[in-house]
Amino acid sequence: MTTERYIEIDEVVSYIHKNLYEPLPLSHLAAYAGYSPYHFTRIFKEKVGLSPLYYASSLRLQKAKDLLLHSNMCVRDIGLEIGQQSLGTFTTRFTERVGVTPSEFRNSAITADHHLQALQRLRHWRKDHPIPSPYGTIQGSIQATVPFEGVVLVGLFAKPIPEGLPLYGTLVPSTGEFCFTNVTPGVYYLMATSVSWEMSAIDFLLPHSTLRTRSKKPIIVRPNAEIPYQHVMLHAARQDDPPILISLPLLMNNFLNRVVK
User: Could you read off the pLDDT tens digit of each residue along the chain, which spans 261 residues?
Assistant: First the structure.
């Protein structure tokens, strides 16, 4: 794959962002890039990690999150706004990919702020260390391109996008090492994002500008096979990064329930 082709995909990504409320059939996006639908889909997935239509649907759900917190529109109208004709379908898809219902997400700001404060008060987190197990261990370290004080949420997901509950997840104070133990054989994508202590709840309920990283290539866990050490570098958000759909306060709450006895 050449850089020149990547530039054309960047142009399509910009087009999707600008025309999110318009129909975006695959044939139209492929024609915009000047490729056949098959070839376009292949190089789009190589560049972005997702298919064009899945990427567009993810951006629409991100827009729904924005509207839930920044408008007085009812849930049904927000679903219609992003192209979901049925309230039930919208609620189901939102809940599956964000982790909470639209109504729960809309009313989660106060709780989210409390979760961040509780994390900041923690002084001794129970760290996960490698232990003998019949399954795999994934270890790594997290660094950032710019300094920050806060917490890093890191997880292993089934797809190359942070949506739904991670199959394995933890939190790390600022930068440092992480470890997932007893990981069953399978295919995983490592995702991470940061939340600074000074952030408001809205900042991480709608994490548009948090530092982040993601693996476009999977981590494959096989029985009795060594897994390479993962060097994770958090960077500023890029236009072709899929949105962070999973509710970060939900992950914070799950972590707090696990470590605070």
Answer: 444 457 889 999 999 999 998 999 999 999 999 999 999 999 999 889 999 999 999 999 999 999 999 999 999 999 999 999 899 999 999 999 999 999 999 999 999 999 999 999 886 665 555 556 677 899 999 999 998 899 999 999 999 999 999 999 999 988 889 999 999 999 999 999 999 999 999 999 999 989 999 887 899 999 888 899 999 999 999 988 999 999 999 999 999 998 875
The tokens for 260 are: 């605070």
Q: Are strands 176-183 and 219-221 parallel, antiparallel or unpaired?
A: unpaired
| Bridge partners (DSSP) listed for residue 177 | 141
DSSP class of residue 29 equals H
**Tokens standing for residue 65:** 């999150």
Decide: residue 5, CB within 10 A, 0-12 exposed, 13-18 middle, 19+ buried. Answer: middle
> Which segments of the chain does DSSP mark as H helices, in order?
3-18, 26-33, 37-48, 52-70, 75-81, 87-98, 102-106, 109-121, 201-205, 248-259
Q: What is the dihedral of CA 76, 81, 83, 85, to 10 degrees?
A: 30
CA separation, residue 21 to residues 38, 60, 121, 156 (Å) = 24, 8, 42, 31
What is the rounded distance in angstroms from the CA atom of residue 184 to the CA atom of residue 182?
Answer: 6
**In the numeric block, which tokens belong to residue 172?**
């790390």
Residue type, 89: T
